[in-house]
Amino acid sequence: QVQLVESGGGLVQPGGSLTLSCAASGFTFTNYAMRWYRQAPGKERDLVALINMAGSSSRYADSVKGRFTISRDNAKNTVYLQMNSLQPDDTAVYYCNAVRSVEYWGQGTQVTVSS
Fold first, then answer.
1. Which residue, among 21, 25, 27, has the nearest Cα to 8 in the 3D structure?
2. What is the largest CA-CA distance in the chain?
3. Contact present, 79 and 13 (Cβ < 8 Å)
4. In this structure, are residues 83 and 72 in contact, taking their beta carbons and an 8 Å threshold?
5. Which among 34, 11, 28, 24 has a CA at the least distance from the CA of 81?
């Protein structure tokens, strides 16, 4: 059974940091590129960051470039999103996504940036 389980969300003050984790199981993790998306209330789901299968290449949305870092540990079947200098506009549900010829989604984790 394929599972992507996100964790690490929560409430943080502006300027703070969070690290999201996504634990994968039920498929060959190293065969899939991994992505983080986010969806704010009333808005579409947007791509935040992606990383290739080996973890050697990554790309970011302009809105998070320089603040967020995506990484993966293929030995632990886990992908991470380190988020620094968080702002209220970063408030959203963050989703983990595995993509190849098919794609899988996690259930999401809420990140709220507020004072």
1. 21
2. 42
3. no
4. no
5. 34
Residue in 34, 32, 19 with CA at minimum distance from that of residue 81: 19
Q: How far is CA 78 from CA 6, 34, 43, 51, 57, in A?
A: 10, 10, 27, 12, 16
Specify the residue for token string 């507020």.
Answer: 114
Model confidence at 88, in pLDDT bands (50, 70, 90)?
Answer: very high
Strand partners, 19: 82
Confidence label for 31 from pLDDT (cuts 50, 70 and 90): very high
The whole-number pLDDT of residue 48 equals 98
111 touches 21 (CB < 8 A): no
Nearest CA to 111 out of 14, 5, 43, 33 is that of 14
User: Mean pLDDT throughout 33-37?
Assistant: 98
Which SS3 state, helix, strand or coil, does residue 30 take? helix
